[in-house]
Design brief:
It is built from six helices and six strands; from the N terminus they run βαβαβααβββαα. It has 187 residues and is of the alpha/beta class. 36% of the residues are buried.
Length: 187
């Protein structure tokens, strides 16, 4: 099976390749730029699923391939209901360091959320949601990206930033959403 990802991020493609290996799924993930497909849609949805659908539709309108898109973010209780949420990437760009968040929100409950949309031009979209709960801690580790160094998942004594990628990929919000997708696809 070939799936066109609604991203040109090679790191995200590698994450999906690694996740698919967990299911012995024979999936080839393709980046749009490899097919000369370009898209930079305005993500103005009100939910992760809406933003995923916007990204998926922007790519799907240019091909007949199966398209997978996701949107993810972190929600930190101390910052308010579902914040920064769908604005996680933009919020991160407005601060000087993760210390600003950890200082303000130390030990606050938090969760990462991911919404995956799979579009097949012949069928209705499949939407799968995944979460991982944890708390905000002082920055530790250099693995991953974004908020990973300040997020410690429940039941673990390491941040996502300290975990090897293969360990994070077993418990992450994206892994949880992908597991639901694999189940729905009977893989």
């Amino acid at each position: 099976m070939e799936i066109l990802l609604a991203t040109n991020n090679p790191g995200k493609r590698q994450e999906y390749i690694d996740l698919a290996k967990e299911y012995s799924a024979n999936i080839k993930f393709i980046l749009p730029k490899e097919l000369n497909i370009y898209s930079d849609p305005i993500e103005d949805g009100k939910t992760y699923a809406e933003n995923s659908m916007i990204k998926a539709n922007a790519i799907a309108s240019q091909t007949n391939m199966i398209v997978l898109a996701d949107d993810a973010g972190i929600e930190i209780k101390a910052l308010g209901k579902q914040f920064p949420g769908i604005y996680s990437h933009r919020y991160l760009e407005t601060i000087d360091s993760l210390n600003q968040i950890s200082d303000k929100c130390l030990n606050s409950e938090a969760k990462f959320h991911c919404s995956i949309v799979l579009l097949n031009y012949k069928k209705d979209p499949i939407i799968c949601e995944g979460e991982v709960k944890g708390k905000i801690v002082e920055p530790h580790g250099t693995n991953g990206f974004g908020y990973d160094p300040i997020f410690m998942p429940d039941g673990y004594n390491k941040t996502f930033g300290e975990m090897p990628e293969k360990d994070k990929n077993k418990i992450s919000h994206r892994a949880n959403a992908f597991a639901k997708l694999m189940k729905l696809l009977n893989i």
